[in-house]
Amino acid sequence: MATDTEVLVLGGGSTGCGIARDLAMRGLEVTLVERGNLTDGTTGRMHGLLHSGGRYAVSDQASATECIEENEILRDIAGHCVEETGGLFVQLPDDSDDYFREKLEGCRDCNIPARVLSGREAREIEPYLTPDIERAIEVPDGAVDPFRLCVANAVDAEAHGARIETHAEVIDLLRDGADVYGVDVRHDSGPGKRRHAAPGSTEEITAEYVVNATGAWAGQIAAMADLEVAVRPSKGVMTIMNVRQVDTVINRCRPKGDADIVVPHETTAILGTTDEEVSDPDDYPEAQWEVDQVIDTLADLVPILEEARTIRSFWGVRPLYEPPGTATQDPTDITRDFFLLDHAERDGVSGLSSIVGGKFTTYRAMAEEISDHVCGKLGVDATCATAEEPLPGSENLAVLEDGMDEFGLRSPVARRSKQRLGSRASDVLETDDANPVLCACEGVTRAEVRDAIQQSGTDLNAVRIRTRASMGNCQGGFCSQLLATELHPEYDEATARSALDELFQERWKGQRHALWGEQLSQAMVTYALHATTMNRDRDPAASDGSLEYGAFDDGEVR
Amino acid sequence: MGRSSTEPSTTGRCAEVAISDDVLVIGGGLAGAMAALAAAERDVRVRLVTYKQSTLRQASGLIDVLGYAPDGDGPLVDPFEALEGLPTGHPYERVGSEAVREALAFFDEVAGDAYVGDHTDANALVPTHGGTVKPTARYPTATAAGLASDNRDALLVGFETLPDFDGPLAASHLAAAGVPFDARGVTLSFPGIERDDAKVTRYAHLLERDEAVSVDDSAATVGARDALAESVDEHLEGEPRVGFPAILGDERADEVRTALGEGLGVDVFEVPMGPPSLPGMRLSDLLYDALEDAGVRVTSGVPVVDYEVDPRGSSDTPADPSAAKTSDDPARGRIDHVVVDRNGAEVPHRADQYVLATGGLVGKGVRSDREGVREPIFDCHVPHPEDRYDWFVDGVFGDQPYARFGLDVDRELRPLETDSRPTFSNLRAAGAVLGGYDFAAEKSGSGVSLATGYVAGRRASTAVIR
């Protein structure tokens, strides 16, 4: 199978989806391929912080300025993905006054609204902050849902004619002499929506221009065409708490350091993070000490974290890059700036650019710059509209807020559903069918799950990132089976079963790093339900041999 | 359960406040109830204290003995045969297979007509709400017509507002599991249920009270049972049995099931469900009625927060000044009394013998933090790997170490110290607080609770008499 497109984007993270949307809106024909689900790489594994720029206000003012600009744009175009929590940079007795002053001045230099709060004022906003807080700087940090934002970009790209292929892994980057002209991809289950157990296939996709937006994996992709991109992947752990101990983003006000941020995110709070270089972005140790370190260090800022319940931990890999010859030792010193590597200029190989570095908050600006570059290469004269055009779900938020009590959904389910769906809420939730809540932890209803299945096929992890179902306290213990049930009868029983097995194992993966206290008890509840009550661990339907039913009790008293 | 008994007059040093009994059982789940009932068989004063709602509400209500051997062999046709081969330290190995049979016979007596399965040693295969089958030794009468070895065809009825059980999916799943009959599923709307998120007890009470419901938007109303039977009837294609999720009534479930069966002219059965589970609640009610009949004093809603050892040492061990410390000497002597928190007042509860049946990780009889795993009341030793990354394996259904967390016990069911000495002379443990077995993989949870509860209760009352 072979197809042709104008621009081929590799990677379904925030950068790739942002580029696909931007180019599609400019009228180009775009195909995007992603190895797993959208957001599976680094985008889905971040702490959910929408930077105000305050974090970079001393060390990197160019990035700080870009952050505040993009922060304001995202509040406009993706209001349903952003929670305007505000943020605090907190000074403890050990933290330097000089740095505090530099931070404040830096914010003002970069047009980041900033105001100083006394320790008492800060604790009025966040009562769980440590009593020995000196003072704090308040900035417009926010929380952002990277899943919804990325999916909204992809959906809008599709609405503008783009083709988005998930579960399509690049197996070769096609190069003819000094020209890259396309890729070979392997479809996990054939092209289109994912379908479990459907046979795989390969496809050659040729393009006039290829954008390698695979982040931490950019080096591996480039190597397929004998090009070198020296990405320096750096891992960081994020630990999710069961409730929001804080409603404001809490940063430690000190030059740099591991484990200095707490981000309130939906029903949870996310602690982060560490920074350690790894050699392979797909295979690196996930170590106990990292989890312990973020909890213990952040407990200095918010003491109740020491005893609080964590529900899972996950690691993300930053796609850090620095130009050859820089050789920074400590990954925390490597710039967070992004680099557009035009392989024609750099290596004399045309038809390909690689994007590395960068950060989530500024994904749109990066996408704009790259799209400008691609248009230049293709001789297309079209301007970027992504800073003005709202993303799907964010078009009519004001109208949405006015009519909150429809759909027969009880608050807070109604409120949460609407936050997730934004202006699409009425399309999704207006149904004559019964619409019970399937995921009680996150308040996700059947209609929302069905809508997500329409978008993504049998991949329940794709349903998860669209709806947040199975992301709460029970980590899918109670709802994963209900999500799988919704696949039937559109998909057959075996498909629903294998989709359930896959989601259940994925949810287990992150819980392993939170297995003590309440969450260990929760894991046992889940295990007991799925193994004891449902016998999913030893399901005769999944075994090869046939069961001799006649040997068992048939109820007859003989 | 909300039941409380009049406090008896007490004896002892704290005469004004202390409660005194012969046997004190801590924990009100299946193991605790069995221990108290077994102890009360003899002429001793038995008290059961329980803190939270028992985990029976979360259990399916089936009485599994052993569905799979620890190596995964199974489903086992005859669980009793396999009991002989269990490894040292498994709770069944501790009490012996004869005690397991005795405990089951005792349960059969207590349960009366509410449970069946005692006509054979063979396990039954019961359809689960996830759609496959699982092996079990005793099952509620309400489930009896649903057995998978019964080759009559079945219609499975699910409800659109009750997402835990999907009839058509369960029917396909049963076919994939190779059951010897045709299963067909339908999804209906439940007459009289108006909210999409009604609790399972609402369904049960609608049927139990046979409330008047309106059908087809007409002004006329009919009883909920007739309305349900009518809506199922039009989907029946000659199947002689019909399965529903386990919501068919609460206290008068037999009546509801019979009425539906007569209305449809078929056998009606319930498919056990996850939490909150009506069959689990019915079992809990049955046990608490039996406790009341047996004269056991039950105090609910109170946690045991502390204990004191007897300063005079262990009186259970024969005093022989010439004997050196033996491996059977209790490491921490004898429990004099435990302290119960009653709404903030600390009340000593004294007994001659104690049974610890506080549950495992789920019931919080075993607790953990980042540093380790412990038993919170007596701080009995819970063996576990030091590194918490050795508490689990990567496959979710792999051989999970955490699932085996619990106490090591001797053959008297007394918790053991690291040096294998019993911790106390007069404390026995029963049920999920025990370690060394994975009840979820083996499908052995209820059976272990029955057998060890029965043995702990019997031994405790015998020790009192002695």
UniProtKB/TrEMBL annotation, chain A:
Names of the cofactor(s): FAD; FMN
Main localization (coarse): membrane
Keyword Chloroplast: no
Region feature (Disordered): 536-558
GO biological process entries: glycerol catabolic process; glycerol-3-phosphate metabolic process
Localization, UniProt: Cell membrane
Pfam families: DAO, Fer2_BFD
Catalysed reaction, written as an equation: a quinone + sn-glycerol 3-phosphate = dihydroxyacetone phosphate + a quinol
The BFD-like [2Fe-2S]-binding domain, residue ranges: 438-481
Domain named FAD dependent oxidoreductase: residues: 7-362
Gene Ontology CC, one term: glycerol-3-phosphate dehydrogenase (FAD) complex
Membrane association type: Peripheral membrane protein
Keyword Transcription regulation attached: no
NCBIfam families per record: glycerol3P_GlpA (TIGR03377), PRK11101.1 (NF008313)
Assembly information from the UniProt record: Composed of a catalytic GlpA/B dimer and of membrane bound GlpC.
Similarity section: Belongs to the FAD-dependent glycerol-3-phosphate dehydrogenase family.
Record-given protein name: glycerol-3-phosphate dehydrogenase
